[in-house]
Amino acid sequence: MKYFLTILLLTVFSGLAQAQEKAVIADKKMVTVAAGIYKPFFETNDSRPLMVAAFKMDECAVTNAEFLEFVKANPAWRRSKVNRLFADSNYLKHWESDLSIGKINANIYHSPVVNVSWFAAQAYCKWKNKRLPTIAEWELAGNGKPRNIKYTSLTEYILGWYKKPNPPVLPNVKTTYQNQYGLYDMHGLVWEWTFNFNSFTSKADSRGSTEDEAKAFCAAGSVKVKDKNDYAGFLRFSYRGSLKGNYCIPNLGFRCAKDIP
Amino acid sequence: MKLTVIKSVLALALLASLVAGCDSSATTSTSSVAIDEIKGEETAVLTDAPNVPPPITRKHATKVIVNLDVVEKVMKIADSTEYTFWTFGGSVPGKFIRVREGDLVDFTLKNLPDSKLPHNIDLHAVNGPGGGAEATLVAPGQSARFQFKALNPGLYVYHCATGPVGMHIANGMYGLIMVEPKEGMSKVDKEFYVMQGDFYTKGKYEAPGLQEFDQDKAIQENPDYVLFNGRVRANTGANAMQAKTGENVRLFVGNGGPNLTSSFHVIGEVFDKVYVEGGDLINENVQTTVVPAGGSSIVEMKLQVPGMLNIVDHALYRTFHKGALAQIKVSGDENPEVFNKIKTQK
């Protein structure tokens, strides 16, 4: 009888846990970003305005709590097991252990997960039958007009965030603004991985040895630049250029995207 | 088939000998570089302005290890005004680096994890791609390492060259590296580090609170602040540089810009010697010397009489309205033979 009860209880609890896990999975609302034209920060032969098809995007960045579920379900992505080729030594370093964010970190459960590599982010998205958004998709989504904040120009708003050092504790998701598509925190919380972050390389000196970089560097005077004052776009461009796929960085998170069939 | 292989091997050998020929003729001009045998290694002493690392007494080349951190931090730009500076080593200007001609510099740039942005470093003393910038683009929390041979003696600016470059420089990302000539520098009594930079803020000069970078003003080259050593009154009054009469003083002067050229002048002293643009050329008896953005100058003066020497950009509105003032307090005895105020008879 005792055994039976225990088993029953266990079954109920594990069922609950599974339900919770599923709840988390189901909870991540995706919104539709309408088709549009992505205009690159500057135009070259390899970087032209692109037609972007409508797609779905997570309404906010993936949180620590959500990422924990992924790590539980995929042992290869535990901190102690991960392959260094896919995540550097900073991978999830802000967590207490492999499978615990930690009680002292209770205030970041619903903050964007950071210190995750591109490979980890992409693996998470794949696990959810999603993928990382492309630069074009991300930029199109990121240009959405803010709904619920007062601002003079989006560029100014973004630059204001870029110029502040990281806060000691990363705030929760959905704490900045929501934009016209219903997306939260596209700017102002964390940087986000994109699928093809390094497709346009400025891995070098941003004054560049490649033709593209040279054009980017000469941005201030180049007629090819869409907006000479788009310093925010320029900063995202150089940030992405500094990345490698296995980097894990304290202000870099991600959200997933999905095609609309 | 075999014949083709042999032919191509022969062709390669011929090519190799040709290349080798080119090389041997070319090495004669750079043989002085090859002679510098690297002996031992040491870690560079790095200093914040207005301090300068001690002169180099070594008579041989060595491997010099330089570890420099990129730190983004809020600091005072004026008594009641704050600004988010991006720095090499935690202050503006960045750490002063001192090496010797022929040294092999082993440079590690670390971008602290709390940084918001990637950064890199272009040292004007480097012969190589981007002055090191290509090898050092570092994301927050990452570090990058490269080596360069200090071939050319002189005083060189270093700065961040990550896009948008102007903005990184406007936020304070510059400093100086001195490559001492093999024969060393002449002995002086005091050395100081003074670096000018222009700053662009949303609020006016000394408007209180945390002020943001203003890109429109930067594009218009219309700074609110023109500063020596990164802050209004960084080295004036109680914080003035200290010297005595009779002393020979050397100033390592840099200009980070990003926009303005400095008309560098010390009120009440003539520069006995100016290493023009920080190079080998020495000019004597100079009143005002030009320090271009991204350039430097070394000035020397023998202090004759006591008092407060005002260091200014002689484009004087910058001094009176934008903060371009530093001071050297000269103590010691009066020297009436050089300067004597005559009391008028009543």
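The interface with chain A takes residues 72-74, 84, 113-118, 120, 122, 129-130, 133-134, 137-142, 161-167, 212-213, 215-216, 219 of chain B (CB under 8 Å).
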